[in-house]
Amino acid sequence: MMKAVKYLMIGVMMVWGGAGPVWCADPPNGEAPRMVEGSDAPPPERLPAEPPPEVIFQGMEAKRISLEERAEEIRLEERKLKELKVELEAKREELDTLRKQIETSLTRLEAKEKTVNEAQRLEEEKKIKQLVKLYSSMKPKQAAAIVNNMDIVIAERLFLNLKGDVAGKILAYVDQEKAARITERLAETLEDLPEVP
């Protein structure tokens, strides 16, 4: 029926357009369309026949199977992603635990280091106090001879802890260059100290 309508439409268009031959709209017994007498144009192309329902069904079935396979692939990918998410969460928790352990260890280490540093500082102060006591009991000329050969840092700490009059008497006998360096360091250190009201 559709073929007949199509051929009829072609014929109507040709007649209205005033060009070409007119073709028979409904060829008998499934024959090819034929030209009405007096026309010299070739017959129009035949339309391909619709595929049988079995072929259509097979195509639809193949498409359905393909879609199901794709859906299964997507489900597998989703499952893998969920598993990876669980693994990542477990790793994150493990890393958080390790971070906390490291922070705790660092805190303990800092506390030990503070304790050790404090112990060292107290030990150094004790030694400096002993030196102060020793140098305070010596004659200034003897003390100055030792200071001339002493490390500048130790000399500075010694003079910081000596009483002013004792430090002045010893410093008077110290080599001039060394005495100048000790005095400069003392001045810088005293500058950095907070003022006592």
UniProtKB/TrEMBL annotation:
<protein>
    <recommendedName>
        <fullName>Magnesium transporter MgtE intracellular domain-containing protein</fullName>
    </recommendedName>
</protein>
<feature type="signal peptide">
    <location>
        <begin position="1"/>
        <end position="24"/>
    </location>
</feature>
<feature type="region of interest" description="Disordered">
    <location>
        <begin position="31"/>
        <end position="51"/>
    </location>
</feature>
<feature type="compositionally biased region" description="Pro residues">
    <location>
        <begin position="41"/>
        <end position="51"/>
    </location>
</feature>
<keyword id="KW-0732">Signal</keyword>
<dbReference type="InterPro" id="IPR038076">
    <property type="entry name" value="MgtE_N_sf"/>
</dbReference>
<feature type="coiled-coil region">
    <location>
        <begin position="57"/>
        <end position="132"/>
    </location>
</feature>
<keyword id="KW-0175">Coiled coil</keyword>
